[in-house]
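Tutorial, part two.
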Amino acid sequence: MKRLTSLVAAGAMLFTLCACSAHSNPSSSPTPESTATAESTPAPSLYTNPLTGEPTDSDLSGQKPVTVVLNNIRAAMPQQGNSTADIIYEAVAEGGITRMLAVYQDPADLTTIGSVRSARDCFLDLALGHDGVFVHAGGSHYVYDTLAQLGVDDVDGVKGTNASGIFYRDPDRTPGVTYALEHTMMADGETLVKNLTANGILGPHSQGYQYEMNFTADGTPADGENANTVTVSFSSYKTTTFRYDSAKKVYLVEQYDEPFIDGNDNTQISTTNLLVLKTDYSFMDDGYYSDVKLTSGSGYFACGGKMIPITWEKGNHYDQLRYYTADGKPLTLGVGKSFVCIIPTSQSVVAE
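Running the prediction step on this input gives:
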């Protein structure tokens, strides 16, 4: 009886050792539960988009962005390809109408972009501040003078500079709407990336360039005033409205009394960061085109439904825009897209 008891005890010890060995063996097959846990916890990204602070699969920090001048007159709506821009700049072109510069850090997935419109000096300076590829369809003679003076390798749908296969006219791009010729210039994003990369125009940043912007997960400014709706006036013709969506934590953009959309998929344009820059507008010496001073000034920053006053500066053609809080510290943006309104000092900004 004593021998039987010993054998039973020895068998129990052997079973325990085998069970422990099975659990500790690295080559043993994982259980379904452990596999599911491993697959549901993705590894953190090593890279971020330098224009938004968002995680990316590859390192984009050394790559030139693509910048495109977009038509924004009411008769040309809707824009296309605007919802995928990382930054949108809006400024007055002339006669109270505005145009936009859309900035794409990673243009790999671009489809249709447009309508592409003629350039003005401020949009060229904004593009150069990003060390970006400047895409437009024509421009004022002032812009052409500056392009020649600086030796900029631009992409022009009117003169055809570096534009082979990229641009086309589409007067019927929206069912039931026929557009005037000046509102029909479109760009094919896939061809743009392919051709400009092959020609060495879209590629690494110029030596020494780095976009200097800091981001934080929650960019809501401390002690900011309520800014659930922000109405930005550019002129008697044009205002842009930003309505904060607390569920999505972004501002939804409206213009011309309706949602501002991307005609490719009817997505409403949204932004995490709203920046309003006030500056002096005057006329060029022809008395027609706007002369927008991109040197320095005051403005506002809104994020998370709150708004604070800021200052800003740029400087020469190639300087990037820099933003500061009221105490002179560099502004930190929320992780996400930005919409930058450049308005005359005489125009109003209303936050509610």
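Helices lie at 2-24, 32-39, 121-129, 141-150, 189-198. In part three we will examine how such features are distributed along the chain.
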